[in-house]
Amino acid sequence: MIHAIRAELTKALSLPSVQLMLAALTALHVLIMSMNMPNIRDSLANITADGRIEFYGGQLVPAEQFLAELIVAFTFQGVMFIWVIGAVATGTEFRSGQIGQSLLTVPSRPRIVAAKALAIALISLAMGVLLALVSIGITYFTVRAWDSSFLWNEEALIGHGRMIFIAIAMNLIALAVTLIARRTLVGIIAMAVFLGLTMTQVVALISPTVDALLPVSALRNLLFADVVGEVIPPLTAGPEHALITLTAWAIIPLIVAVIVLRRRDAR
Hints:
Layout: H1 2-14, H2 16-45, E1 52-55, E2 59-62, H3 63-79, H4 83-96, H5 98-105, H6 109-143, H7 154-181, H8 184-200, H9 202-206, H10 208-211, H11 215-223, H12 239-263
């Protein structure tokens, strides 16, 4: 199994498209962080005696908690499109006809799907940790003259942990959908539809209960569950519900992908 995971990891990381996406996501994250640091610096310059800052709309909020949440939110913007890696890495095998060779090497459908899933999960984990470290590093040099302890307090670590779990779950969903459809474009479109349904709040306006079952809505409900102030658009479920929903979305489509691979020709 270890050899299969290593092979899938090597295949994914050797793809120019995956390398480009990893570099682009990192560069985009650095840009987003750099653009927002002046706002944080200005807010800290006017911090109140009781440790509150004014941010976004003039609301006074506890500085440490709010900044810890804000840094995680910035990291999330870099993670939001990480699922493209799962779709591209998986779809390339079908487009190039390599899936048949992979199945000859590892005939067991469950094992090959598990190897692909673990390889993508490892890439997502590494990317999530990298983005979190970039967030912490850039913010540290902005706030070090004030107090940088909030960057690694319990709230911040929990937030980054949730964000990394989200990165892994979304990539696994994209991988599974692409395996089922055998088309990169289908995987990308499916994930884009999920993203659009949540961001436009179309489903939430009709039924918040149904909206809470969508993967992108679940990741919002998980990541922003404990933030200070009002979340706009409003969340549609609690963090426990969101965690179960995302886990189900990450696992069930992979099971379906195994069944589909067993019933279809490998070509």
